[in-house]
Design brief:
Blueprint lengths: L5 H13 L4 E4 L45 H4 L2 H9 L2 E4 L6 E6 L2 H10 L4 E4 L4 E6 L5 E5 L2 E4 L5 E2 L9 E2 L2 H4 L30 H16 L5 H16 L7 H13 L4 H15 L2
Parallel strand pairs: 5-9
Antiparallel strand pairs: 1-2, 2-8, 3-5, 3-7, 4-5, 6-7
Helix pairs in contact: 6-7, 6-8, 7-9
């Protein structure tokens, strides 16, 4: 299947913007882009991989859902030119378009939706479906296995108009997020580092810093199987640093923050960390 060209992405974005749907470009791996030169590759210190704006000093927000716009002048401006040249997909801000996307990530989730939710407009995805309802709400990942809610302060990939009639947002969807942590703001997880024990093999803090940085990068760059990548990364870090006691709360927080930037919940992070420790007998 031939991939759309950057100019095709821009044409699609302009068409959506004209219909009142705020849009933004996505890079490889379906992550949002830093859409100005100062913010590319996270040079500004913001978090373009996250579903929250960065800390850049641009004239307008240029990260994630906050960058989504219906302004054709912005979409075609020189500031955004480089972003569209490297974009691999078009995304939109559901909340800004007045809708909520129930992202069903696998066949089991789709089957659950057919049994539990009223019919509405649906869009086929690579692994499942997007069910789109009229109305907005809080966005939250992993409200149940294989189900994410994307609405306010979030973005979804544009995969076409879909089929079916747009139905009002039902209470059954709203109640899914009552006890789930918000995906819009990373949750700081209080997890104790491994107890000190054994002889530390590290000759310099640089060794540990390099290991943590590599682990963060591995998680952030994961394009699929995020759950497995997070667990294996935690396992790798603990296998090297888990017995000497050199890991601190800030180190663990960095790993958890990277995982949450990819959509993992605080609970999944804690479970993956505990499972990795158990596997190593820590």
């Amino acid at each position: 299947m031939t991939q759309p060209t950057p100019s095709a992405h821009l044409r699609a974005a302009l068409d959506l913007a004209q219909r009142g749907i705020p849009v933004l470009p996505l890079r490889a791996g379906k992550g949002p882009m830093g859409n100005c030169r100062a913010c590319q590759k996270n040079a500004c210190g913001g978090r373009p991989n996250m579903k929250t704006p960065g800390t850049c000093q641009c004239a307008a927000p240029c990260h994630a859902w906050a960058a989504a716009t219906t302004d054709a002048h912005v979409l075609t401006s020189p500031t955004w030119t480089t972003a569209w040249q490297h974009a691999e997909a078009v995304a939109y801000h559901p909340g800004g378009a007045g809708v909520t996307v129930v992202d069903l990530d696998d066949a089991d989730a789709v089957a659950w939706a057919h049994e539990s939710l009223p019919p509405t407009r649906t869009v086929a995805t690579t692994r499942g479906e997007h069910w789109i309802y009229r109305g907005t709400m809080q966005s939250t990942n992993a409200v149940r296995p294989g189900v994410d809610i994307k609405s306010s302060m979030s973005y979804a990939r544009w995969l076409g108009p879909g089929t079916g009639t747009l139905a009002p947002l039902p209470a059954d969807v709203r109640t899914l997020v009552v006890s789930a942590p918000s995906a819009a703001v990373p949750v700081r997880c209080a997890v104790s580092p491994p107890a000190r024990g054994g002889q530390c093999p590290h000759r310099s803090p640089v060794f540990l810093e390099r290991g943590i940085a590599m682990a963060e990068r591995r998680i952030v760059e994961a394009r699929s199987a995020v759950h497995i990548t997070v667990f294996r990364t935690f396992l790798a870090v603990l296998s090297v640093h888990g017995r000497c006691g050199c890991l601190t709360e800030p180190h663990i927080d960095r790993l958890f923050t990277a995982a949450q930037a990819k959509g993992e919940t605080a609970r999944h992070c804690a479970d993956a960390w505990a499972n990795a420790r158990t596997s190593l007998g820590l």
